[in-house]
Amino acid sequence: MKKINTKPLLKAESIAKRYGATNALIDANLKVHPGRVHVLLGENGAGKSTLLKTLVAAVKQTSGRITFEGEAFQAKNVQEAMACGVVPVYQHLSLFPNLSVHENLSAFALAEREMQNVRRCLIEVEQAKASLLSVGLSVPLDTLVGSLSIGERQLVEIARAVGQNCKLLILDEPTSALTSTETDKLFSIVRDLCAQGTAVLFVSHKMDEVAEIADDVSVLCDGRTVVDCVQYSDTNESELLEAMLNAPVTSFKRQLPVHSNEIVLRAEGLKVSRNSNVSTLHAKKGEIVGLAGLVGSGALSIAEALAGARQISDGRITINDVLLMPGDRAEATKKGVGYVPGDRQTHGLFPILPALTNASASLTKQLDRFGFLKKNLEIETFEPWMEKLKLLPFDFELPATQFSGGNQQKIIVARNVALPHLSVLVLLEPTRGVDVRARQFIHDTIVEAAQSGATVIIASTDLDEVLSLSHRTYVIKDHCVCAQLTEGATRQCFIDALFSQSERAVA
Amino acid sequence: MHISPANKAELRALMVPGAGLVGLGVIFGYLAPNFLTTGNLLNIVTQMSILVLVAIGQSFVLSTRNFDLTLGVVVALASAVCAIAVNSWGSTAYLVAPFVGIVCGMLTGCLVGMLGIQPVVATLGVLIGLRGVAFLVTGSGQVVPLADRGFATWAAYSNVFGLPPATWFVCGLCVLALWIAKRSVLGKKFVMTGERREAAQLVGIRCEHVVWKSYILAGFFAGCAGLVLLLRAGTGLPSEGVGMEMQAIAAAVIGGTLLSGGYLRIFGTIFGVAFLQTLLTGLNLIGTSPFVAQIATGAVILAAGVLEGAVKNTSEVGA
Amino acid sequence: MTEHREIRRSKQGRLRLLPAGYVALVLLVVFSLWVPRFAAVGNLENIAKNASVLAIAACGQLLILVLGGLEFSIGASAALASVVIVLTVPELGVPAGFAVGALVVIGIAFINGVWVAYFNLTSLIATLGMMIFLTGLTSAIAGGLPMEAVPTKEFLWLARGEVLGLPAPVLLAILSLLLVHVLLKHSTFGRLMHLVGSNRTAAIAAGTPVRRVMLWGFTIAGGFTALAALILTSKVASGQPNLVPNLAYETIAACAIGGMQLNGGKGHACHVLFGVAIIAMINNAAVLLNLPSPVQQLMLGTIIIGSVLAQTKNSNLWGVGFFSTKKVSHAHQSSQ
């Protein structure tokens, strides 16, 4: 392991940031050394993104100081920060699909010009090619970015950062949309950059990635730095987890309720995309079935199909022997199929509507009496659920956007568990971007739904979540089921199942 | 020859209005023998010159994911103010028309860009206000005849290299618009802002200013359209241009611009206007009433909308 | 528990409406004090009468705006209705003729709904195309000129009749506003419209029959347009291809002045009430003060932008989301 022997490139000391009455950061410290990958860990809401924003001068900290290359960091906005060599690559891709790769690489240069010929403002062809090469991407410069894959786009974005004379590259959860091969490629590029002396700040909450890439680690929890720049070799996963969650990690194991043997959900010859293999799966009454797969494996697509939220290429899905029309959510809801979508913001929430309206969105039929809404019934139905899920702030009239991610997810879960005659509950990434406490409440609710007789399908890329919560887990690869795991399976079982093609049960 | 993917995409978008245009040419050429004559085709070009400028202006605004309902009234106001100015200051005052457009564009753009008011409301407010101004300056909406029509008649009706000078002027403006859209940094900024505003902000583009400039540009083109209107009519017409902003949106949509922003297709817009004008002239030549042409226009807009919906659907499935 | 109950009833949604209401009140007081003859009962009745058509049409527009759309064809479809009515009344009699006119308007709204819901058209394009189409159609039927109707008492009743001492249009406007209020705030369908307008994809995922809601939303809105069209026809007693070319603009303006955010998913009958009241009072005061109509238009434009600016100030113009964060944290604290 390399030793830290240089002075830190960037040093942030006791940073605090207040928004109105809320403290996003209280006491955050960070030291990033040149030529090393520094991983910043933290749950959602721990203040990671706020800290990043202060580093790239997108927001001004309330107190605390940042030094860069030994001097006080003076950048007033993102552009100046980037001119200094602090370049962020964001989670939400910041490229322009309708423009060419070359134009995208030159975006910063273009921003400073106006009524000039574009061609004269674009960066040199040689330079553009060189920066593409440095991330191992070989596409023609005039390719439209819109025609590239997500992984390639991210590489273009990193190439753009590299071309910016980047001293500190900030990657904000870069792997969240990548397949495993793309992730590997990204990691090798990050290592190359480090070898050339660039410092990399890598923000993540995935422990397995940390092990693979980290030289140093810092952990942020509730706005404070709890682990400040420790070499990864000097620490271990459970220590970091403990620090991150601010509580000793108790066993993930949870007592699952007993389920009956009556098969409720059946999918036969299911093909979610045209050239995938067929999968057959079933789920019993009261059973929690996991669909586990890596990102891009198609686990989420299969779950969407089971919820009736997606057209399928072939096959039939039945619930209690009644055929489910694919792609017809209205019909599926009527049959008691609940659906917690994976993308909360676009598929789940009604941003400006109050929490209560959000919660009762699937229940309008039941609340209807001669065309009028039974508003008292609405409150009576959801009050117990919201109490159970500990919605915070407990204000049903507050617009959904004003809740934190975890509480938004609670609202969407409540919407589905409150369905009358809930027979199947399909959840996609039920706790993505959700803080630890909310995660607990949501998991409790899921188990409770199963206990009361619903069949639960959980599709998640969070392996621990699926394995700890399911009676049975289907392993998904290339858009079809490739193996089946029983209760109590471990990570290792999953990996074994993934790499041996034959279908088998692992005890 | 190597065609860049960006140009390929634009060419593909041009296919539909292009094919429509050829189709119309064939149909009317068959139905009306004097349709496919040079004189008539040049006539179409001249006829469409006002709408084409407004539609180009509208395209710039549409590319930043906004729209501008004031353009029709700006055309009228510019023509009226310009006529008054020319009557008192002489021919150099023709330059007032684009200037009026720019001022109006600055106002609207400021409301939408800088103050962040929704384009419907902001441009609607300005529209109603400007209509008042147009009536005010002319004293309850009277037309303003030019005292000396010499220049106007020369510009609009003489023949210089086959077309009237005013039409050449419009052609020049089209080239300018094409240059801005395809070659200038500003054009790229419009697309960037319309497509992903957050991303544009991130790379240091001041989106408020870009939106503002798109409105100014639209105002400039509408002002020029007012000038052409004045030259052709010989009078300032303060109550003209009603609904022209809508036709401009329609032309842009027919030309393959999506209202969701990020598309700046000037060629498409010109094709769209040409299509509408050909339809109008052709129907007129075969002796139908102008109202039938209007009905056909409405139908074409709906068809273009259906096409747009279909395009959006397939791209969603593809993604 | 009791504490919770209190917090839950926080009236955030309702507070938003007030600025426009205050403006309307202030205008009422100011004009009553300074504009001669403004506060006379006859004049106030006159204002209400003149505003009623706009109010009814704006109720329809409000529904479309809640659905997240825009409706530009209402002026053109009202014009077509007037021509159809004038043509059919001599054959069928007044009630049947008016019914045919109403059906035409509702049918057009239904077709708009089909375009938007089932063909994925942007509402702007769909209604714009429809507007141009209908303008042409109406002119073709009428030959481009107004067609006079025989002004029988029956024909004129809708615009000039009285019920219980109230002018019929005013009564109909009040009923429309009440109906829209009940529809949006207390009916199941109104709830569905809010869901669809707020986030269409989420509505699909939640099992809302989105296409049907869009279709019937447009159609119900068409009902209000039809009512406005009938009153207008009765008022002018003629079929005019150029009846109310700016109706769409005026209704959108009324909703905006009334304080509505035009993003969809949110709307209240009070937006229409206050917006229309402000417009009508300004118009009336301008007439009483003998201001030329251009000045009136200038004022109206300024008011639209001014009122919207005033409301942007409350949400996010000055410091991004400052006020909203404050509200969250406030509620947050009180719940603990």
Terminal CA distance of chain C reads 12 Å
So how many helices of chain B? 14
Share of residues in helices of chain C: over 70%
Extended strand count of chain C: 4
Note down, in words, how this protein is organized.
Chain A has 507 residues and is of the alpha/beta class. Chain A folds into 3 domains: 1-85 and 167-250, P-loop containing nucleotide triphosphate hydrolases (Rossmann fold, 3-Layer(aba) Sandwich), CATH 3.40.50.300; 95-165, no CATH class; 263-506, Rossmann fold (3-Layer(aba) Sandwich). Chain A contains 20 helices and 23 strands. In chain A, helix 6 packs across helix 7 (150-163), helix 16 (375-389) packs across helix 17 and helix 17 packs parallel to helix 18 (436-451). Chain A is globular, with a radius of gyration of 24 Å. Chain A starts with 9 loop residues before the first strand and ends with a strand. With 319 residues, chain B is mainly α. Chain B has one domain (50-274). Chain B is 75% helix and 1% strand. Chain B contains 14 helices and 2 strands. Chain B has helices spanning 5-31, 38-47, 49-63, 71-89, 96-114, 119-137, 150-157, 165-182, 185-195, 197-202, 207-233, 244-254, 266-285, 290-318; strands at residues 144-145, 235-236. Chain B has a two-stranded antiparallel ribbon. In chain B, helix 3 (49-63) packs parallel to helix 8 and helix 4 (71-89) packs across helix 11. In chain C, the strands form 2 sheets. Chain C has a two-stranded antiparallel ribbon with strand order 1-4. In chain C, strands 2-3 form a two-stranded antiparallel sheet. Chain C is mainly alpha-helical. Chain C is globular and about 55 Å long. Chain C contains 16 helices and 4 strands. The A-C interface holds A 19-22, 309, 329-330, 332-334, 339, 341, 346-354, 357, 361-362, 364-365, 367-368, 371-373, 375, 379, 392-399, 402, 415 and C 4, 7-13, 186-189, 191-192, 194-195, 198-199, 201-209, 261, 263, 265-266, 322, 324-335.
